[in-house]
Amino acid sequence: MTCLVVADHSNTDIRPSTFCAITAAKQIGGDIHVLVAGKGCAGAAQAAAKIAGVSKVKVADADAYAHSLAEPTANLIISIAAEYSHILSAATTTGKNVLPRVAALLDVAQLSDISAVKSADTFIRPIYAGNAMATVQSKDAKKVITVRTSTFDKAPATGGSAAVENVNAAADPGLSTFVGQELSKSERPELTSAKIVVSGGRGMGSGENFKIIEALADKLGAAVGASRAAVDAGYVPNDYQVGQTGKIVAPELYVAVGISGAIQHLAGMKDSKVIVAINRDPEAPIFQVADYGVVGDLFQLVPEMTKGLG
Amino acid sequence: MKVLVAVKRVVDFNVKVRVKADQTGVELANVKMSMNPFDEIAVEEAVRMKEAGKATEIIAVSMGPAACQETIRTALAMGADRGILVQTDAELQPLAVAKLLKAIVAKENPQLVVLGKQAIDDDSNQTGQMLAALLGWPQGTFASKVALDGGKAAVTREVDGGLETVSLTLPCIVTTDLRLNEPRYASLPNIMKAKKKPIETIAPDALGVDVAPRLVTLRVEEPAKRKGGTKLPDIPTLIDKLRNEAKVL
Fold first, then answer.
1. ipTM > 0.90 for the complex
2. Which of B71, B132, B162, B193 is deepest in the core (most CB within 10 A)?
3. pLDDT, chain A, mean
């Protein structure tokens, strides 16, 4: 039994989500190989080789993989799939884009967003926005799996010394090309791996008002998140969204400001260790899941908290 | 250009589901059902393409029990031209749905299939990508903008770091994210008109697809409950609790 973990990476380094997927692979058992497909990705491959528990790193370095396009990347994974019992990836937008394509080409089901490994063929995954947890067994010979990163610890980044092996690029179907990207620039920690997250909702009233969230986040060394309502209103970019269909986070501390607590938002943050809610409405559902709630005007309370942390 | 839109009947997004006592699933009796919200966005996008003169016909496809007719009628009331229901009471998993859609694509020859990125019941986020794989088509998933031009689709995608744009050769698959558009409410005259639009019903067997589930749900349980509800009088108390009780600062 050998697991292949498809790495999310920046060509120079491995993204934190991949370390969580490797932990899931360890729980499944057997050898663990990591696939690094990219362009100029030797740095990422070297980083992958050092991760504890990884026995082999396969590198595909070609123009076709520069932007993780689903069509060529899926074909590449298929070209080496024969030797693997399990193919995993973190449930990032890259993993969610590519792996179902791989599963269909292999004629197997995919297990999406698993939150626990019960055995090599049985997994737990959340359904209905995490309001139910399904224990699911795969009857397929190969398992294709995306991993909910918030429920698996990161594998240690050092301690391994895996062999690095080149694999040939597979045929690029040539149906898709990368045009461009607009990435949010931030000096703050990445949302899904931050220890503290401060999120704002509709109650913020404007994008300008998010400054008080950012000031609190900077004081705490936190990432900034948002509810769908705040993203839809254009206060902050889409990649801030925490929720059922956005990012799933489980930090040590989650501070929800001006967020009512719709089911879909709770789905993205209710596994946080400690939840704080600041909201004007004492009946807001967010208070039912918050360990600590403060009712009042966020425009007064948030700056007071920032100041109080001194 | 023909556009196919896939629509799923799911528990309404406002309903907080309850797990059945026997742990076989969630309670669906007497629960409000609606079109999957991402599929509403898919229908809306197709209708806007038709209004812009880019699409000539919109076909709404649903799969499942007879009640999925209602979901198709909703799509027809929003502006789809006709419907196809693959009717079955069997459990349909994403791979089976993708195979059934592939068979319908073979009959209808659309240049574009638009699907929601994820259904809010099983939260799988698979069907569009699987359909693209089975057809050998390119895919633009999690779309927040779609521009059709000269046999290509430029799809702006919501990705973890922000936005990314890809150019796809038609025919292609698009799956919708939340910011693609704001779906319209069907007007009463359009709801009435939709009653007269045709819906074809097909059995999975007639499409030659084996829909047997590959995943077996062994049990469904309630998630661990959080003990929330503690309200504090002021910010100094909160900071004190975070430092000395929760010890997270």
1. yes
2. B132
3. 97
